[in-house]
Task: structure prediction
Amino acid sequence: MGSTIAITADGRSTRFDAGLYHDDHVAAWRPVVDFVQRQGAKIAVQLGHFGSKGSRSHPNEGLKYLSPDEGGWITKSSSAIAPFNGMSVPQELNHAEIAELQTQYVAAAQRAIRAGFDAVEIHAAHGYLLHQFYSAIINHRTDEYGGSLENRTRFLRETVQAVRQTIPATMPLLVRISAVDYLEEKNAWQLDDSVQLARMLKDSGADVITASAGGFVFLDKAKVFPNYQVPFATRIKQETGVLTAAVGAITEAQQANEILLHEQADLIVIAREHLRNPYFAKDAALALGVTPELPFQYKRAYL
Result:
């Protein structure tokens, strides 16, 4: 898994982002998938839509929000609410647009299958579109996609059901959620809500819940420490029985292994440490006493 792959062109963060919203993208992804699988590894695709967090400039240009006149586009969300300073107010999605986006999630999943991916994850965390629906901080709708927790989670649940029906029964389907909003407002999304959502997603066909958090505000760095989000995965796992993936400042092999040994989660998701050290997986294997089975051409350079 890696960064979010957009399901539509206007679902990207920037116009430079990768996607699976066109049939031509299948051929572009296939060499990447083939390479990973030739190494004996599995590869999943993370599908998402940035909603009102999209239409930004290149990271080298500060990720500034761009108007259509500046090369951006009109963003859409659950409500006409701008969750961040400096953002333009998005347009509220109507029912036809919601249905079309669900169709695009399914189409992207089908393209992922054709490209050879081994699993699919729906990204519904970090303030992206699906999170913009289930969090009452952003969702001010009064129709069947707003109001109660059941209504606010409807878009996500329907999307998971639709994707589950289009991919093979044996293909793992993961859903990444923000377990908490990290906001003090009384209508902010909380861990109790995530436990309820996890039960619903399990019934909708999700195999694994990746319990991340936040996305609408920058978290105080004093609250970031090793394993700081692991308790979210643990509680969801214990109270719902669904498999969970743990994230959050997991940077060492033994640290990750202890989470599994203590049954705090079923899967460890490590992102930034892989960016800092592209050999992390091999280093971790050696640290845990496992000799990596590497393709011949890589053994000499690594060992």
Notes: Confidence is low (pLDDT under 50) at residues 296-303. The radius of gyration is 19 Å. Residues 161 and 203 are 9 Å apart (CA to CA).
